[in-house]
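hiii so um. not sure if this is the right channel but i have a protein structure encoded as tokens and i wanna go backwards to a sequence. like what aa goes where. can anyone help
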């Protein structure tokens, strides 16, 4: 088994960040489309939580992506 290189770690970090950005973007779209009155009560708390925390998740994911890309450039 070969050891993991710095470049492979950088690719993984950038990929995970990009996946987070994609997830947050899709979540933004879903939160705009869904009407909170029309979903079951057990889901409403989760929708409110994501509505409050999705912007921070998007910013952190973008930061992780940028960090991964910078690591790849080194």
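sure thing!! here u go:
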């Amino acid at each position: 088994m070969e050891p993991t290189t710095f470049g492979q770690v950088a690719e993984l970090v950038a990929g995970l960040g990009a996946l987070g950005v994609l997830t947050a973007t899709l979540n933004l779209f879903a939160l705009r489309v869904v009407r909170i009155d029309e979903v079951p009560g057990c889901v409403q708390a989760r929708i409110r939580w994501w509505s409050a925390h999705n912007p921070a998740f998007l910013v952190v994911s973008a930061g992780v992506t940028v960090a991964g890309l910078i690591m790849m450039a080194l």
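oh and The two ends are 25 Å apart (CA to CA).
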